[in-house]
Amino acid sequence: MATHAFPVPTKQFAAEVQGVRTEFVLQGFDNRVLVMVTQLGKVGTMLQARCVALLPPSRRRRAKRPSSRRQRADGAVVVRAKG
User: What is the pLDDT of residues 37-58, one digit of tens each?
Assistant: First the structure.
């Protein structure tokens, strides 16, 4: 397992998952942790998830559901949430 502290604390390791070599990279930021997992050696899709149970009660709220998606001219996808 490799560990790096600069510029962002990073841990990297690999393990077998159902017989397939799987690589993991974890990077710790001030208020988030980035977790990347790949079985192909590259990043395909980036998603953001949060654990509401770990948030203080004042910041807990029902997750908003996307109501519309559109693609900008530069190719970025914009998701607008209700509420």
Answer: 999 988 888 777 766 666 666 6
The residues near 80 (Cβ < 8 Å, ≥ 6 apart) are 66, 67, 68, 69, 70
How many domains in the chain? 1
Rounded to whole angstroms, the Cα distance separating 49 from 54 reads 12
Look at residue 35 and tell me if it is in a domain: yes
Domain around 22: 1-42
Give the pTM: 0.53
Nearest partner of 8 among 25, 24, 27, 36, judged by Cα: 27
